[in-house]
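Render this sequence as a predicted structure.
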Amino acid sequence: MKTKLLTIAFAMMACGANAAVQNYDCQLHSIEAQGWIPQRVILSVDTDGKQARAFDGHIRESNNLAGLEEFTPAKAKLKTTSKGEYRLTWKVRLSSNSSRRYRVNYIATLDPQTNQLGLRATFQMDGLSNRPSGEGPCKLIETSLF
């Protein structure tokens, strides 16, 4: 009986720990055709733990370039704005059409009320002035990146 109660207690604690994690599958549209904005991004947001993770095709490519497991999500910094939106930031290294590699900073703003995502990329260390951006809808999913 004690074993059964302990099992139930641990299961409830595990459910409670993941209750704050919300997972989003986002489809993005970018006007710029340079390829810096992915068409799909998966985000996991843990507001209680103040952490987030992101995964997309660019993160997968960056993992391959760095010799990491290709399906490892990127850790993202999480901030809740005064409007209640989630702002996530993460960095990756990507190759361009040439053999040059760029350090790309991604900034995602997710509105949990409307499930709309805005994503932009910056190239601060490389002196590039273009700022690719995209936006699109997200849907809540069960799969977590944590």
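Summary. Confidence is low (pLDDT under 50) at residues 1-17. The chain is about 20% helix and 45% strand.
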